[in-house]
Amino acid sequence: MKKTPAEEPVVSNFIRSIINEDNRAGKWKGRVETRFPPEPNGYLHIGHAKSICLNFGIAEEYQGICHLRFDDTNPEKEAQEYVDAICDNVRWLGFDWGKHLYYSSDYFDQLYMFAEHLITLGRAYVDSQSAEEIRERRGTLTQPGQDSPYRERPVAENLDLFRRMKAGEFPEGAHVLRAKIDMASPNLNLRDPVIYRIRHVHHQRTGNKWCIYPMYDYTHCISDALEKITHSLCTLEFEDHRPLYDWVLDQLNNQLHCHPQQIEFARLNLTYTVMSKRKLIELVDQKLVDGWDDPRLSTIAGVRRRGYTPRSIRMFAERIGVSKADSWIDINVLEDCLREDLNENAPRRIAILKPLKLIIDNYPDDQEEDCHAPNHPQKPEWDKRTVPFSKIIYIEQDDFMENPVKGFFRLAPDTEVRLRYAYIVKCVRIEKDAQGDITAVHCTYDPDTKSGTDGANKRKVKGNIHWLSAQHAQHIEIRLYDRLFTDPYPDISGKDYKTSLNPDSKTTIHAYAEPKLYEAEPEQCFQFERNGYFVADKLASQPGRPVFNRAVTLRDTWAKQSNS
Ligand code: ATP
Ligand code: MG
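Above: inputs. Below: predicted complex with magnesium ion.
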């Protein structure tokens, strides 16, 4: 079976079916050309990642090409910072647009020329109503709109006015250019949509050359046609715009000689997440999160810092597939993709998140020895690493219970556990402070039971816990991230999404790690045995002073946590 970059078996979907049918019928002579068309007015999120994987993935699969096109027709809201971040995100996900990097603003001259052509054909006119008057005459879903008093302006007058709009003779809002379609159309998008408006603003690429800017619906279809896109994939909210997309291209058929097919798919909605740019901007601006790349955010920069890998996201995109109906994807599906990737690809290490001191009474005071722990339990070729052992070690507080509940097989008074990769120890005594809290447990060890020796199987014990030699353990900072929202549908619960922010979504702790973790490079991922998957923070971490983010727990622990 054919494999995608994420090595998932390819499951067919309606987009693949359309392309297969086009190829069979020879519609595009086997050519497949797609594009990812972000507006550079914010950072990309995981929903965009779905679209990137789909557009670039489909092109790759059919030996086609995918363009990266910045839809930069709204200069007030757009910035180079976003352009750079978007390029970086797409590359990080593992895709390459090669030489096919475009900007809608590259086409401003042609778009203008085509607009004059529409005027000449009698298919566009300059309307001098105010925005409010246009809105009032637009009608409703049940009532047709009314024609503008300027609708029958002669071609020459339209041309003259449009040229003067371009020349900067009028203030903003004085005139707009509208397509002349049908004010009675049941589709509101066809009621003489505005295709150009006056904006006396600087554009980050074209400078002050233009003071009229084309609207999205007019720009997008022409850009697609100029780039000879074959399949223009977009989200479902554009379904009602398709007749306009087709109308514009039909009028300009003699100029463009290319009519891409717009195909809509359902956008990604993910539980416990908000995804609209407006809300992401609000979270950042109101400092409810620590910037655009906060590891709790659904931005691509955020999930990357959280520890998500490109492979896990591509796997996710393939797994959720594409459909024609809006639905919600459980965030577990995303988390499981990361678990799956890191379970296979992350080296194992030991860290103690909540330390409890354990003293081995019968182990010589100044002795230390090496234990050997596999870097990956299923990959002997990854070899073993050395973990030092000595008289005083740390274990997790949770691995000890003074009064063990039924079914607790770890350490308790008078019971035995195996210290993973080392010896069997037995708890003989506990130390407490004045408040009655346990400060240390005392054990004896059985020197004949070291892992990897003949004595390892001398007797079976049920518990098997991780530990670190206290004198060798290194201090590390760990950020335990959790879901940003407590409500699975923060966006649509009928209340302000900010009221369901999870107050415990970030906890910083100081923990201990085995010496080898000290060398961690930023963005390296590990499984901390029994504690989850962690990544060395992209910005805060450096070899010698590591800071880790918890990407995901080993299993989905959310259900349990939210009930407690
Ligand atoms: P938002 O609505 O989240 O603010 P947008 O649609 O305005 O985003 P664009 O920059 O226009 O952002 O999006 C670029 C492409 O990504 C578009 O083709 C759009 O359809 C697609 N896209 C945006 N959000 C999602 C999503 N949640 N799932 C899938 N594709 C998406
Ligand atoms: Mg958009």
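The first strand starts at residue 33 and ends at 36.
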